[in-house]
Amino acid sequence: MDKTVNQKAWFLVLPVLVLVAFSAVIPLMTVVNYSVQDTFGNNQFFWAGLEWFDDMLSSERMWDALARQAAFSAIILAIEIPLGIFVALNMPKRGFWASLCLVLMSLPLLIPWNVVGTIWQIFGRVDIGLLGYALDKIGVSYNYTQDITAAWITVIVMDVWHWTSLVALLAYAGLQSIPDAYYQAAKIDQASRWAVFRYIELPKMAGVLMIAILLRFMDSFMIYTEPFVVTGGGPGNATTFLSIDLVKMALGQFDLGPAAAFSIMYFLVILLISWVFYTVMVNLDKREGN
Amino acid sequence: MEWMAWTLPTAIFFGVIACLLVTFTVLAIKFPETPRVGVLRIETTRGDRLFITLLGSAFINLAWLGFVGTNQPYAMIVCAIYAAAVFRWV
Amino acid sequence: MAAANASRLNGKAIVMGLYLLFLMLPIYWLINMSLKTNDEILGVFSLWPQNLTFANYATILTDASWYMGYVNSLIYVVMNTVISITVALPAAYAFSRYSFMGDKHLFFWLLTNRMAPPAVFALPFFQLYSSVGLFDTHIAVALAHCLFNVPLAVWILEGFMRGVPREIDETAYIDGYSFGRFFIKIFMPLIASGVGVAAFFCFMFSWVELLLSRTLTSVDAKPIAATMTRTVSASGLDWGVLAAAGVLTIVPGALVIYFVRNYIAKGFALGRV
Fold first, then answer.
1. Do C101 and B48 touch (CB under 8 A)?
2. C151 and A259 in contact by Cβ < 8 A?
3. Do A34 and A246 form a contact (C-beta atoms < 8 A)?
4. Per-domain boundaries in chain C
5. Where do the coiled-coil regions begin and end (chain A) (predicted)?
6. Do A91 and A168 touch, CB atoms closer than 8 A?
7. A267 vs C29: CB contact, 8 Å cut-off?
8. pLDDT tens digit sequence for C137-151
9. What are the Cα distances from residue A128, in Å, to A133, B12, C33, C43?
10. Beta carbons within 10 angstroms of residue A200's beta carbon
11. pLDDT tens digit string along A55-86?
């Protein structure tokens, strides 16, 4: 669909522009300003040049946090995307059961993130939590506050619990848009289940799956509240992801300079990744349109 | 505005970016752009190429700082070459 | 054939059953704990409350420092939803109907704000709102949440508006409707479900967010999420009250979800199906 060229449309966009500029551009400029200065409080600043960037680039702490973050995002994408598709394929197509599934599946998405953390914090405790207690009873040693593996598994299972439904709902929306005629044609051709999935369902889901991957990747890349509540970033620094580390630095220790330099690099990485995803998404859209 | 802690260099930095945006807007009005497909196999307009240039330059500067560590201004030469390449081929 | 179909149906039911069980178990456990006394939580392990008690809920609903948390959260969430939808509607219309200079770049820039980590913005927001004297007010949190909710609302609404044929606009203009009247009288009813879904998502993301709302408030506008971190008393953690507070935070979400249940899948796909 060709859109009409109309420069007056700018006026319709203006309110959004002003609002987002106020809440995004001004803070970002401030971050850039902080990143090249040192402060001892009282709004007194001293020129520090690129020192903080240099510090951060050679700081093991940041690289470790980045590595953990990348590992975490990769793991949860590898679990949630296939699982979400699988669940969507098994969902009832219409009627009462479909509605029920939709409502129940959306429920975890609407729980405040710190409550999600609290739920799993309790659920996993060996003394009062169902999961921890059950695991303890069958003889699995499980303690997410002491054991690094257990902490990671808890954080990952929590994220899968929290967000797989989002992927499933997106994939489900994609599946709903496939006309029945396609399936009938496949049946006449005696296509295998796999062929139906590969050549009918997957292409139809491609667009929404890109959105799912984009959202899941970005949100997992900036995850803060849930692991913070459950493990507090521990044991040691084992589950200290980028945002947790950043908040510790910026609001905990009030190290404005290093935190700002960290923020900028964090933001640049996000910008790069969202640009790549977005470009792929737009091109997918275009190819479908042709 | 005091809390924003402006410095001359950062003010110049944002000034340059603002000027670039204005220039490209004026260019877009004077010479309407047609998207083309470059080496990345994606359609880009002049604005897209500016974005790719700026984002890439940020990473080039960081890489220079991380690997070379001294003579930061020379990184800008690499950026200029990169910018030329982007505008020519992407 | 029929048998094969039936077995496949059962297979599907089993998969869904297991998945829903996995989703519901932790929530069930939270509700279970909220109905127990602290002694029972720490003393005996039981799958359901032995001495059913609503004392935990009573504590929350009678103590102002608790229930004001919910009130504060609701105030800024509603403010944010109203602001986001109001500014996003015209913008989404512009993006869906017209092409103008820099439209694609603008759209992408908006999206990057949805992707930006709140942790990056927490500190400058704190400074910004302190300097303009809005620290610890509801509007500060509402505006801060616009950072990710406005782009999201634009994105969703644009998707829904795309589905409305352009001929409708053109006919209306030929019939002499002004833009404003057309938008409210004709266009809004057509995308009512889209507006509902967008509002739902703004509500949801503002409701679940903790980092910014906690950073920008201290007393007067303190959200429930931040209140929940103070359940540590002299006798240790008050698990029962904490669980009850958690259950009560789920209720508003569960209520709104009921109203948009038929559009929710399309909404999550940002109207792009």
1. no
2. no
3. no
4. 63-268
5. none
6. yes
7. no
8. 999 999 999 999 999
9. 7, 58, 9, 9
10. 17
11. 888 888 888 889 999 999 999 999 999 999 99
Nearest CA in chain B to A35: B10
What is the token pair recorded at C118? 């709140």
A6: left (phi over 0), alpha (psi -120 to 50) or beta: beta
Q: Which CATH superfamily is domain C63-268 in?
A: MetI-like (1.10.3720.10)
Q: How many CB atoms lie within 10 A of CB A282?
A: 16
Give pLDDT, residue C3: 55
Query: For strand C98-99 and strand C232-233, is the pairing parallel, antiparallel, or unpaired?
Result: unpaired
CATH number of A9-289: 1.10.3720.10
DSSP string, A135-202: HHHTT----TTT-HHHHHHHHHHHHHHHHHHHHHHHHHHHHHTS-HHHHHHHHHTT--HHHHIIIIIH
Closest to C95 measured CA to CA, from C239, C270, C273? C270
* Structure tokens belonging to residue C43: 């003393």
For residue C128, what is the nearest residue in chain A, using CA coordinates?
A27
The pair of structure tokens assigned to C263 is 């559009």
- Angle, helices C55-62 vs C239-259, to 10°: value is 80
Bridge partners, A46 (sequence order): A38
Helices (H) and strands (E) in chain B, counts: 3, 2
Reported pTM: 0.85
Print the SS3 string covering C137-166: CHHHHHHHHHHHHHHHHHHHHHHHHHCCCH
> Would you call B23 an interface residue with chain A, using a CB distance cutoff of 8 Å?
no
Distance of CA C88 to the CA centre of its chain: 16
In angstroms, the CA A121 to CA C23 distance is 15
Residues of A whose CB is below 8 A from B7: 33, 36-37, 45, 47
Report the C-alpha gap between C251 and C173 in whole angstroms. 44
